[in-house]
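To assess whether ligand presence alters the predicted conformation, the chain was also submitted together with calcium ion. Input:
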Amino acid sequence: MSLSRKLTAFTLSGLFVACLTTQALASETLFNTLDVDQSGSISKTEANAHSDLTKIFSEVDANGDGEISYDEFTAAGLDE
Ligand SMILES: [Ca+2]
Ligand SMILES: [Ca+2]
């Protein structure tokens, strides 16, 4: 690996750590990861990939429309 490639890898890992340590950014990143199709909400299908989320889906979906919005996501404290 060349020196410039090593530097690039180091910078990228540094950015990743910076993201993880920023709470607001981390919760948004988590939400975006779960929202696979980037529709702005987590559908039951998307939640099914995560058994823990499937179990609490109906509780987190406060308005019962079958999708978890970002507001419902943060209100449930899933970002903590
Ligand atoms: Ca979605
Ligand atoms: Ca909802």
